[in-house]
Amino acid sequence: MPQGAVIAxxxxxxxxxxxxxxxxxxxxxxxxxxxxxxxxxxxLVKRTxxxxxxxDRRPVLQYTTEDGKVMEVGSPVPxxxxxxxxxxxxxxxxYDPEDPRELVLYGRERAIWEYAMAGVxxxxxxxxxxxLLG
Length: 134
Hints:
Largest sheet: 5 strands, antiparallel
Strand order of the largest sheet: 3-2-1-4-5
Radius of gyration: 20 Å
Strand content: 15-25%
Number of helices: 2
Helix content: 40-55%
Distance between the termini: 12 Å
Order of helices and strands: HEEEEEH
């Protein structure tokens, strides 16, 4: 394989890995930050459709912040068989008091996906380095 093609492939692999690694690390940081500084509140599950660019397959969560502001935010995770997020039910969420639109569902933080993304990113960076050195 020509040297230029190897360098291009190594660069693409390394950059893709860096993006994946950073995405996973940012997600983990967000989960930890909300775990430390977030505010727990019960949210009403509403299936009212999408809110300004939100995914319409995910229900809307309505909750009231500490300062009395009513928020409606698309769920950060989709409904599942195990946790259906049924219309009219209540779920515990933890929101960021500095940005109340940012939240996680209690017990569904999805940290495993963030660790997986960071791990895959690290592997791709190593593959890219291996292509350059090999």
